[in-house]
């Protein structure tokens, strides 16, 4: 299980250390590459659009991916897993479809722009939005969220883990509040699907948006949405068109998943996503979580010991995903990231498409340097990254 020593084109000829898995995971399990290559070489048909064998087999590929996702998230009916192009599309389906003028939405101060931008757009259409404040470590008190709920609150939107700090928000506690107050809970699991245990039943999650190309190890262009039974009646599709079903009708199907899956699907991508989810099931999510927690602790302890480095977040890997943000005194995040890349270390600087989160932790508008290892990150890559950060910080003496 070693992917160290990968070479890439850089200003200096170095081996690449990839520390940007919060943006997209890389490398992927070998099974993902093989599944996608096999589909393209031996099938390539359009599922549900023909009656020939390759088309039927393509449909089976999609069904197996949907079934694997349902098992991972504790969903009894795989048909309630809607396959999308990414988590952003999934979030937009709910936010744009469920809300109407006069409705009220509760969300947190740690949200990604994939939540904030649709909500801000809906504000222009007469929706009211309340941002519940979080601590500078990204922590949310469920009682503060409960106090923000009003008689006309129609939706709670909450990320499972911040893409800036990795801080885990109290989804299970908020799910209990949502169920008691009869307000649907939409969870953005872009940073946790495949890395953290998620059970929609025990956590009372009504709607779950997830990315396929991060912790689930699938390719880019994949994601999905879980919809609790009955809620689809209040959520129109974001797009309409051919679904391969009920072609005699000129009206959109009203049953799941077809209601939300118009157009030719990304079957090759879903072949890869299905392989990624099966890889997680084989290795065990708990084993993946243990390894990522260990790597995160290594990063936190190492950065904490470097003078002129400011570390953000809880400092406790048990309370966060494998995401660590920091700054070096006297340097902008972009300057730090540029120096790291010159040494072959890839990370992400700036605001990470989450200005609300950076306002919460006091790093707006500069942002932070974000490091995000994955299950495939060699331990030695953490050591090399810490050595590089130390050299950069020492030069600021």
Report on this model:
It contains eleven helices and 13 strands. With 397 residues, the chain is an alpha/beta fold. It has two domains: 252 residues, Aspartate Aminotransferase, domain 2; 111 residues, Aspartate Aminotransferase, domain 1 (Alpha-Beta Complex), CATH 3.90.1150. A seven-stranded mixed sheet has the order 2-8-7-6-5-3-4, with helices on both faces. A four-stranded antiparallel sheet has the order 9-10-13-12, covered by helices on one side. It has a two-stranded parallel sheet with strand order 1-11. Helix 1 packs antiparallel against helix 7, helix 2 crosses helix 7 and helix 8 packs parallel to helix 11. The N terminus is likely disordered.
């Amino acid at each position: 299980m070693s992917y160290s020593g990968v070479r890439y084109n850089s200003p200096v000829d170095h081996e690449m250390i990839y520390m940007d898995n919060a943006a997209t995971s890389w490398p992927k399990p070998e099974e993902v590459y093989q599944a996608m290559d096999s589909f393209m070489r031996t099938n390539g048909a359009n599922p549900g659009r023909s009656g020939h064998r390759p088309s039927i087999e393509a449909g089976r590929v999609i069904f197996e991916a949907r079934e694997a996702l349902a098992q991972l998230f504790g969903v009894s009916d795989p048909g309630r897993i809607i396959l999308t192009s990414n988590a952003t599309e999934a979030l937009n389906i709910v936010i744009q479809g469920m809300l109407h003028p006069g409705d009220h939405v509760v969300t947190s101060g740690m949200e990604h722009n994939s939540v904030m931008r649709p909500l801000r757009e809906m504000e222009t259409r007469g929706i009211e939005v309340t941002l519940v404040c979080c601590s500078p470590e990204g922590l949310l008190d469920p009682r503060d969220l409960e106090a923000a709920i009003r008689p006309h609150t129609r939706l709670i939107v909450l990320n499972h883990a911040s893409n800036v700090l990795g801080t885990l928000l109290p989804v299970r506690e908020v799910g209990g509040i949502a169920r008691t107050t009869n307000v649907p809970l939409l969870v953005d699991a872009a940073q946790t699907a495949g890395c953290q245990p998620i059970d929609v039943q025990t956590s009372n999650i009504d709607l779950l948006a997830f990315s396929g190309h991060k912790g689930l190890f699938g390719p880019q262009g994949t994601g999905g949405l879980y919809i609790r039974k009955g809620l689809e009646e209040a959520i129109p599709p974001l797009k309409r068109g051919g679904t391969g079903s009920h072609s005699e009708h000129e009206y959109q199907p009203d049953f799941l998943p077809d209601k939300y899956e118009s157009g030719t699907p990304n079957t090759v991508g879903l072949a890869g996503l299905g392989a990624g989810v099966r890889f997680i099931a084989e290795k065990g999510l708990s084993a993946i979580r243990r390894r990522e927690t260990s790597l995160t602790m290594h990063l936190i302890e190492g950065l904490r010991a470097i003078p002129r480095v400011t570390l953000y977040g809880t400092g406790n890997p048990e309370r966060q995903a494998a995401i660590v943000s920091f700054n070096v005194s006297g340097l902008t995040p972009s300057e730090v990231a540029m120096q790291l890349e010159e040494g072959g270390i890839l990370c992400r600087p700036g605001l990470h498409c989450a200005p609300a989160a950076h306002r919460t932790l006091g790093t707006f508008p500069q942002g932070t340097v974000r490091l995000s290892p994955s299950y495939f990150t060699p331990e030695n890559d953490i050591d090399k990254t810490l050595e590089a950060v130390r050299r950069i910080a020492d030069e600021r003496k």
